[in-house]
Amino acid sequence: QVQLVESGGGLVQAGGSLRLSCAASGRTFSSYNMGWFRQGPGKDREFVAAIDWSGTNTYYAGSVKDRFTISRDNIKNTVYLQMNSLKPEDTAVYYCAVKILGGSYRAVPNFGSWGQGTQVTVSS
Fold first, then answer.
1. What are the residues facing 82 on neighbouring strands?
2. How far is the C-alpha of 54 from the C-alpha of 102, rounded, in Å?
3. pLDDT cut 90: percent of the chain above it
């Protein structure tokens, strides 16, 4: 079973940038469709971005489109989330996960093997 470890979170001022990384164990990473999700204080976990196994197709939540970019490096077994123009409402724990079921890339239940998460805090 794949294990995922997120990193790159931190405290940043509004308008700033961060790049999150999600490192995966195992030799089959290049076959996985991957996603980033977040969970803010008192909120449900929500979809942020996803990418297919080849990196050809990407998907974004409307709230982050044109500010966040998801990418992957199948040699390094890593998926990234570049976050620009950060806003206080982006404050959350960010998780990466593997898409384990068919259907929508935006649905939390279609993902598994969740990492432990990395905290992102955006100050105003």
1. 19, 69
2. 16
3. 96
Report yes or no: 9 and 120 within 8 Å, Cβ to Cβ. Answer: yes
Calpha distance 91→30 (Å, rounded): 30
3-state percent helix, strand, coil for the chain, nearest multiple of 5: 5, 45, 45
Q: Using CA atoms, how far apart are residues 74 and 11, in angstroms rounded to an integer?
A: 28
Rounded to an integer, what distance in angstroms lies between the CA atom of residue 40 and that of residue 69? 20
Structure-block tokens of residue 44: 């449900």
User: What does the alpha-carbon distance between residue 96 and residue 4 come to, in Å, rounded to a whole number?
Assistant: 7
Angle at the Cα of 115 from the Cα atoms of 111 and 118, rounded to 5 degrees? 120
Question: Sorting pLDDT into bands at 50, 70 and 90, what band is 110?
Answer: very high
Indicate the residue type of 11.
Answer: L
CB 94 within 8 A of CB 9: yes
